[in-house]
Amino acid sequence: METAQRRLTHRGHVMETPEGELLLVNESGVAYRVNESVVAVWSLFEDKTVDEVVEEVSKELQIDPEEIRQAIADLAEQLIQAELLA
Q1: Which of 2, 19, 31, 79 is the most exposed place for a label (fewest CB within 10 A)?
Q2: Long-range contacts from 29-33, C-beta under 8 angstroms, 24+ separation
Q3: String of b and e for 3-39 (b: at least 16 CB within 10 Å)?
Q4: Residue 60's beta-bridge partner residues?
Q5: How far is CA 75 from CA 21, 53, 85, in A?
Q6: pLDDT at 3
Q7: What is d(CA 75, CA 73) in angstroms, rounded to the nearest whole number?
Q8: Contact 4, 50 (CB under 8 A)
Q9: Sign, CA torsion 65/68/69/75
């Protein structure tokens, strides 16, 4: 099934290093350094499709969904590969 149509839920958890860097840590303990925007989008995935998250973010930011659709789809693919979305 195409990623845009799959219902995805975030996995793992967020940590902050002593230096203040944000990390997303998957269930295997592998950590990825991320920024606040990545954490914000990742946290929106709670049994939602990419399209639903795109709509939610575009409404929040008051921008055209097409401006962010590809970026969020690409991020979702990377998070799936990192075992941070399933």
Answers
A1: 19
A2: 30/82, 30/83, 32/82, 32/84
A3: eeeeebebbbeeeeeeeeebbbbbeeeebbebeeebe
A4: none
A5: 19, 11, 10
A6: 73
A7: 5
A8: yes
A9: negative
Q: Which amino acid is at 33?
A: R
- Collapse the DSSP code of 34 into the 3-class scheme (helix H, G, I; strand E, B; otherwise coil) and give the result: strand
Rounded to whole angstroms, the Cα distance separating 85 from 46 reads 9
The C-alpha torsion from 61 through 63 and 64 to 68, rounded to 10°, is: -60
Task: Take residue 41 and report the two structure tokens written for it.
Answer: 């989008």
Structure tokens at 34: 């991320």
In tens digits, what is the pLDDT along the chain, a chain of 86 residues?
577 789 999 999 999 999 999 999 999 999 999 999 999 999 999 999 999 999 999 999 999 999 999 999 999 999 999 999 99
Domains of the chain, each with CATH number or no CATH: 3-81 (1.10.10)
